[in-house]
Amino acid sequence: MAEVARIDKWLWAARIYKTRSIAADACKNGRVTINNVNVKPSHTVKAGEVVSVKKPPITYSFKILKTIEQRVGAKLIPEVYENVTDAKQYELLEMSRISGFVDRARGTGRPTKKERRALDAFVDPAMFGFDEEDFEEEE
User: Fewer Cβ atoms within 10 Å of its own Cβ: the N or the C terminal residue of the chain?
Assistant: First the structure.
């Protein structure tokens, strides 16, 4: 086992990204940071460092336990890194899953009639404890 590894190879070998080229692109686009500093794909990492990976809508954080450059089986992943992601990030992920229809994915086109009704029901003021009668009384 080497004491250092390239960040793009480590991200791929640790199964954080599906391919090494996707991991390298993430580094180039500023989605991978170490100590709040963006890193290039050729940056070397050591055991004990904390890598932050932005995968919208949340930022995952991993503490490196072992530096590897060859992909390992999924059962061996707990030996490679420790997930130290903040619990608030997972709450944010769950909230985005619940309200998934609000933030539409690019390229999905216009909402269908059913999606439009669901959106209207979500934004409707009655959901926030207001009735139309309340507005009429104030005027």
Answer: C
Neighbouring residues of 20: CB distance < 8 A, sequence distance ≥ 6: 8, 9, 11, 12
| Among candidate residues 34, 38, 37, the one with its CA nearest the CA of residue 4 | 34
Q: pTM score, two decimals? A: 0.67
Q: What is the pLDDT of residues 25-79, one digit of tens each?
A: 999 999 999 988 999 999 999 999 999 999 887 888 999 999 998 998 989 999 9
The answer to whether the beta carbons of residues 64 and 49 sit under 8 Å apart is: yes
Beta bridge partners of 45: 5
Q: Write out the two tokens for 61.
A: 């954080």
Q: What angle do CA 113, 116, 122 make, to 5 degrees?
A: 145
DSSP letter for each residue of 38-78: E--TT-EEETT-EEEEEETTEEEEEEESS--SS---GGGHH
Contact indicator for 104, 111 with CB cutoff of 8 Å: yes
